[in-house]
Amino acid sequence: MAPLPEGYRYDWLKRSEIPALIACIKRWHPDIAVGGGSCYLREDFYNDHVHLKGEAEKHIIVGLFKHGDDLAGMWSLEQDPDALSLYSRLIILSPEHRSAKLASKALPLVEWTGRSMGAEFLFGLATLKIPHMQRALESGGWQLIGFTSGYDREQVAPGVVKRVFEGAYVKVLVPEEDLIRPDPSNLTPHARALFDVLFPTPPASASPPVMRSGK
Hints:
Elements: E1 8-12, H1 18-28, H2 43-49, E2 50-51, E3 60-67, E4 70-80, E5 85-93, H3 102-116, E6 121-127, H4 132-139, E7 143-157, E8 160-172, H5 189-198
Parallel strand pairs: 2-3, 5-6
Antiparallel strand pairs: 1-3, 3-4, 4-5, 6-8, 7-8
Helix pairs in contact: 3-4
């Protein structure tokens, strides 16, 4: 479904690999010590919340990129069964293996995983510190719908923690006829202006743009 470059392979995280993965994440992405991704540095997070290979199913999964027997990166998804959605929580690559473009190679696998779980909507956040993940998502057909202003925290320098901007990306997995545009009368002027920019009214002969109605 999503072949990797020669010499690389996928694997699911096993319980015995948790300490090694934590050590690698600390080395690959030291800024993750604070903020939403810091849970991936704690063994109890994996024990309590992550579906580990060969063990009971849980809503968070962690996949590994391996080069031979060495860890080359990791990715993590979280299922929301009530919303039928899949959140792409995190992807981190070893600096030594970033030239292999593993993130863009794995995006079809994220979509396949979502479809196999019955998900109808994919979403994730991309760092604005480097463009690599933004390019991977955009080339995979994900739509940039805005920016989070301070959703998460990062260590931007030793001992300095700031709230950061990130790009919000989505991909809808259902046919357009299963979606409905909001009634413009229910939108404030600001909301309608932004909606019209993101989801302009199509020509009469075209299908309506994708947008899930609010509750």
